Every structure is written in structure tokens, then in C-alpha cells.
Amino acid sequence: MSMKEYIEEAEQALLHTYNRYQIVLDKGEGVYLYDMDGKKYLDFCAGIAVFALGYGNEEYNNALKNQIDKLIHTSNYYYNVPTIEAAKKLKAASGMDRIFFTNSGAEAIEGAIKAARKYAYLKDGHTDHEIIAMNHSFHGRTMGALSVTGNPKYREAFEPMIGNIKFADLNDFDSVLANVTDKTCAIIMETVQGEGGMLPATEEFLKSVRALCDEKDILLILDEIQCGVGRTGYMYAWQKYGVKPDIMTTAKALGCGVPVGAFLMTEHVGQNSLVAGDHGTTYGGNPLAGAAVEKVLDLFEKDHIIEHVREVAPYLEQRLDELAAKYDCITERRGAGLMQGLVFNRPVAEVINKALEKGLILINAGANIVRFVPPLIITKEHVDEMITILDDCIWS
Ligand SMILES: *Cc1c(COP(=O)(O)O)cnc(C)c1O
After folding, report:
1. Angle at 233 between CA 230 and CA 237, to 5 degrees
2. Which pLDDT score is estimated for 35?
3. 121-172 tens-digit pLDDT
4. What are the residue ranges spanned by the domains of the chain?
């Protein structure tokens, strides 16, 4: 069947929850993807900040193949070695103490919310605790995650959400303070907002919120699902400022394509929240996912991925700044590390479609922002190649 015929079949069978780009991707190699017709694309999306190590990494692929032949799934009633190794390495990389593996980012958020509510419940026996979340945040599409997502457009048709959620503005500490009550059990935010605008939390804001949480025994939940796992030049973005969360979520690049996420917590929260029977998952942290996480963390160390991000990210910033200076329609560049956005004064769909035609894969973050979340192994030459194509797709 032709690419066009496959797309028609897809439109007959799949629920229309996405306006997909009109290509069928077939294989990947390094930072390039190929569609069914063999057309080559430079990939600055990485499956939405997932494929950090690039496509076809031999060591990663072999680790998965070996694990598939050995054991794919056991359930969480039993231990398995890859997941134990993965947990040990993730603890070391994150500085957190206790891990619960999930299958996705949204599930990690669900677990984080449950842990925070249980922590507060054990303190005072009440069941009316509040969570403060941020406007323009994105935490996922399940009901709990949606409830803390600060974008009414995503929520409206699905009301009622889970209760007692309040919204403040990122980097506006007064707006957080104004929402704090005796019932506040947690404050949740992305360390760098992704979907909502590629906007980093400032050091001052993070430190103020951390101090507030310490003073009032409120749990700080940092969502590192998109900005974590090396993307900002730190294993987790909060490590830049040393503002440690009580609970942290991670997913996307954690398994580099094998669906896996996790919520992690400090020993103190671990000892005072979820216990046997409180939470569970059939697949979460199965041996295949464990093998993926273990190998990803291995390769991050062996291939010095973080150091590489620190070297190439300033160059990406510089080249994007040049574009922003050249075109009036680009009002701002923002982001951290290899998580960048160009803010336009108009919708960017046309720019992204043009880029795709010319063999460059980009995505948006909201209607007016072009998002850059490439595989972390990109080089300065790849950045130049991307800029050359993108420059051709923008008109003022
Ligand atoms: C993608 C994302 C999620 C949701 O993860 P899924 O795996 O799609 O459920 C949550 N938070 C942030 C910051 C994300 O970028």
C-alpha cells in the first residue's frame, strides 16, 4: 500500500484526537527519520522530547532485544533484576530516595497527587486538602493530571475535575502566596513549562516556593517529565539551582521510547505516604521497561550526554537568537538547554508544515511557539542544518 492509502486507513480506524502530519514514518537513524517513501527528515522533535539517544543506538537496541528474549513482564508481585538496577541508577541520577515506576507521564502525575494527599491525610485525618498548580501548565490527559493542568481548553468538556485545585502564575510568588491556606498539601509545577510555552521557572521563584513549602510542611512536586533526563544540561532541571522537590515526576526520555515513567520522593515522604495497597500498576516497571531505563542511564554516563548538551545548547540558543533578531514576527526565544521555543506573533502551523515539506520535523508548543526538543546527541552541524531549513520557511 502507498503512504496515502495507509493514511486513509488510519483515518478510518483511529479516533480523531490528533491532526496528524501527512506522513507515515518508517525508520530512524541517529537524528534522522525516514518516511515510507524514503524521504529523509532532520528530527528536532524526538518523539516529543523522548528519543534522547537518537534512533538505532546499537547498545540500547541490543539491551532491549536481550531482555525480550529473557523476560518481558512479571507483574509487581515479584522482583526483577533490570528494574532493580534501573532504580538504583535513577536514585543516584536524581538524588531522590524512593521510586514508583509507571507507564507514562500522566500516570506519574496521578501517583504524585495521591502521595501528596495521603501525606496530608496521615498528618490531620482530613480529606479536603488543596493543591496549588500553575496557569499554562501541562501535566497530562488523565483526570487527575488534567485537574492540575492550567489550560481551561483541555479541561472544560470533562468537568468536574478532581476538587480543591487552585491556580497561580509561574514566577509570580505573590500569586502562590495568595492561594495558600491551611489545607494546602502540595504545590505542583514543571521546572520548565513545556507545552504551555517553554518557560523556565526562575531561581528566585523556585527558592521562594521551596522556603514556603518548608515553613508550612507543604510538598513541592516538580514535574520533570519533559525537562528532565538531561534535556536542560542537568539530569533534572531543578539540580541547576539545588531546589530539591519532595516529589518529582519523570517520563518521556527516561526509557527513550519504551513507555515508562516514574514518580520519586524523599525518604521522609516515602515513609509518610503510600503503603501496600494504596497504589499499583500491572505493567509499571516491568523488566523490559527496567532494561530500557537501566541502559539509558548507562549510556548517559558512558557517552557524556549531559556534557554534550551543555556544549551544543548554547550554540542552538545563539543560532535561534540570530533568527529572532532577523525576523519581526519572532518576538522572543526562551527555554533551557535543548528545550527551546521561538515565540511568534502569529500561529506557527504554516512554518511547521513548510519545514516538514523541506525535510525538517518541528512541533509547536501552543499555537504561536515553535518548539525545539531534538535528540540530545545533535551536533552543531545539525543545528546549522536545521537553521538553514527553518530560515527558508519564515517570512516577516
Ligand atoms: C508529556 C508531559 C506529561 C504527560 O506525559 P504522558 O506520557 O503523555 O502521559 C506530563 N507533564 C509534562 C511536563 C509533559 O511534558
Report:
1. 70
2. 98
3. 999 999 999 999 999 999 999 999 999 999 999 999 999 999 999 999 999 9
4. 3-56+304-395, 71-302
264 forms bridges with which residues in the sheet? 99, 248
Contact 250, 94 (CB under 8 A): yes
Sequence-separated (6 or more) residues with CB below 8 Å from residue 115: 219, 247, 263, 265, 269, 273, 274, 279
CA 121 to CA 100: how far, in whole Å? 20
Pocket test for ligand 1, best of 238, 252, 281, 373 (most atoms within 8 A of CB): 252
State how far the alpha carbon of 255 is from the alpha carbons of 284, 285, 286, 389, in Å.
Answer: 12, 11, 12, 30
Q: How far apart are CA 85 and CA 315, in angstroms?
A: 35
CA atoms lying within 13 Å on the CB side of residue 348: 23
CA dihedral 94, 99, 102, 107 (to 10 degrees): -80
Q: What CATH class has 71-302? A: alpha beta
Structure confidence at residue 37 as a pLDDT band (50, 70, 90): very high
Handedness of CA 114, 290, 292, 234 (dihedral sign): positive
pTM: 0.98
Residues lining ligand 1, CB < 6 A? 104-106, 109, 138-140, 190, 194-195, 223, 225-226, 251-252
Q: How many CB atoms lie within 10 A of CB 56?
A: 12
CATH architecture of 3-56+304-395: Alpha-Beta Complex (3.90)
∠ CA 44-49-50, rounded to 5°: 115
Contact 43, 374 (CB under 8 A): yes
Q: How far is CA 111 from CA 117, 139, 185, in A?
A: 10, 12, 14
Mutate to test the pocket of ligand 1, among 104, 170, 226 (most ligand atoms within 8 A of CB): 226
For residue 389, give the nearest of 5, 105, 40, 4 by alpha carbon. 40
**Nearest Cα residue to 330 out of 344, 350, 348, 346:** 344
pLDDT digit string, tens, across residues 375-387: 999 999 999 999 9
